Structure formats: structure tokens, C-alpha cells
Amino acid sequence: MYWKGLLHHYRDLLPVSEKTPSLSLNEGNTPLVPLPHLSKLWGVELYAKYEGANPTGSFKDRGMVMAVAKAKEEGYEAVICASTGNTSAAAAAYAARAKMRCIILIPDGKVAMGKLAQAVMYGAEIYTIEGNFDQALKMVQSISKKAPISLVNSVNPHRIEGQKTAAFEVCDQLGSAPDVLAIPVGNAGNITAYWKGFKEYHQAHQSGLPRMHGFEAEGAAAIVRGRAIENPETVATAIRIGNPASWEHAVNASQESSGTIDEVTDTEILSAYKELAREEGVFCEPASAASLAGVKKQVQSGKIEKGAKVVAVLTGNGLKDPNCAIESSSFKAEVLPNNEEAIFDLIKERVKQ
Ligand code: F0G
After folding, report:
1. CB of 291 closer than 6 A to ligand 1?
2. Does 147 fall in a domain?
3. Is the ipTM of this complex over 0.95?
4. 243 in ligand 1 pocket by Cβ < 6 Å?
5. Which of 209, 249, 279, 344 has the fewest CB atoms within 10 Å of its CB?
6. Residues 196, 237 within the same domain
């Protein structure tokens, strides 16, 4: 069957009417990849929901197709968002497709190169601010109230509607909900969307409910600490957020589902990021690896029981942040003479090591 994207496939479960433009970049329907090697190492049945396979390389496409389509339907000619990078890439792509103006505010120096390249290519108006995501979000919330510009951050309920479809897919791919859904938490929109999706699908199809385990980066762990973090810091720039807009919804999702909101260190994130690529051939961006790092930590502590069926959401593609991959590895380009024999000798040498 030819996949026509989320607004077509899930139209009965989304706020789609005859008036809604049929916007699509064929987003959704992403693979649920079994992780057999990590499963064996960690003693759980582990899968990755690989959201890096979406058209702009992150889960944001699910929410953005819905939010931009509704903005167009409501007569807006422009959309605006604050972003750590992925939201702006997705907003820019769907705005281009819908022939709308796209305005984005991003924190200076903290947006991964791949994401910035996307926003540039899709033709967004990019404003880089001397401030962080939380401050940028406040500004766009205020600007969208003063001007006829639709705010497409995840405080826009249409974003949550679009993103809940990932939970539907997980249930269909596994045959039912997993025991645990592990997910990175930044602004907390996605954990909110997944929980809504699991509940709706369970009502309609008795698909069961997972425990929701959200993971913040230690240097940005506002929910875990119970207070906003003024200057959040983490290598996982996508979740470098100190005052999550959907804070209460995230707490609610974890409590209602008997799950947890926990934190992982940058060291744990980078270690899971590398282990996933080396062991399984799956490359995600650093923030995405927070979900896996969290699973590893909680299996070790016993919070996740051995044998549990666990789905870790890998929210973004590894190619989004090539600098992190190179800088966190010991790789150094070593230029050799243009001589096959010398190269073969080296290759043989390395086998012995
Ligand atoms: N993973 C990635 C790769 C992200 O880009 C984000 C959020 C998250 C996880 C966290 O999701 O905010 O719904 O809890 N990125 C936003 C952005 C903030 O601007 O791209 P959340």
C-alpha cells in the first residue's frame, strides 16, 4: 500500500475536515527496529521507534504537518516557533510546502549544524538570539498574540494531535502496547502526545497501556528537580530546556501510567549513543539516546524488570548533529600516501592489534 502520510492515514483520529488542506511530505509510518544485541546485553526485549526516518529526520514532522495544515485552514499566512533545531527544520519544511512564511527563533551557537542547514534550505527567516530556548519560546508566544502569525511550538494542541500517531503505530507494529515506553523529555510535548495516543488507541482497540518513562538530561532536569533551571546545559542540545511548557502533562503521563520522569548524565547519553551505533547499526542524535541511556540505567537499578518489552523512542536522526559524532569519538583523519601497498600493510597491522 502506498503511504500517503498522517493526515490521510489517521484522518478519523485527527482534527481533519474537508476544509483541512491535504498537506503531506509522507511523514509517519516509521520503522520499529528490534535491537537484538542490546536486548541480550541488558536482559530486556528492546525496540527502537526510529523517528529519524521522517522526512526532515525527526518526530517533529508528525506534529508539524497537523499544525501547519490547521494554520493554513484558519487563514494564516505565516507560522512562528522557537526551537533547539528540529522544530524549526520541520516548521520550515511544511511551511515551504504549504506556501507560508516561516519565522524561527533559535539560541545562538546551540543548534546542531544539520538542523540549521535544513532551515536555511527550506527558506525560513532565521533569528538567532543571545538567549536559550525557554527565553525564545516566551518571545514567540508573545509575538504570536500581537500579530496574525500562528505559533507552531508544542503548546499548540494540533502539534500534540499529530504526534500522538506515533503511539498508534507502536501498538500496530507490536500488536499491543509495550510494557515500557522510554522517551527523551525536553519541552515535554512528545511524552504528552504519546500518552494521549496510547490512551485513545486503548479505548478504541484495547491495545493496552505502557508505563511512560521520560528522561531529561541531568543539566536540564527541571521536572526531576521540581524547579525550573535558569541556565540549562547538556551535550544533547535538542533537550537543553530548563522550563518545559508541558511540565504538568509530563508528570501526569508518568503518574497515570505508573512510570517515572528520571534524568541521565551527558556521559550516559554519549555512551548509549555510541553503543547503539556500534552494536546495532542505528545512528540517532544525542538527545534521542537519552531514552536508551535511561533504559540502561533503570534496568541496572531494577526499576525496569528483566524481560520487559521496552520501546525506546529515537526522536531524531544521527546525521542532524555530525559534529557531536566526530567530536565525541577518538577519530582523527590520518592522510596516507597514495599507495595501495602502504595502505594494505596498515590494514594488516591493525588486524593484529
Ligand atoms: N528529541 C529531540 C531530537 C528533540 O528535538 C526534542 C525537542 C526532544 C527530543 C524533546 O521533545 O520537547 O517534546 O519533550 N526538540 C524541540 C525543538 C524543543 O525545538 O526541536 P519534547
Report:
1. no
2. yes
3. yes
4. no
5. 344
6. yes
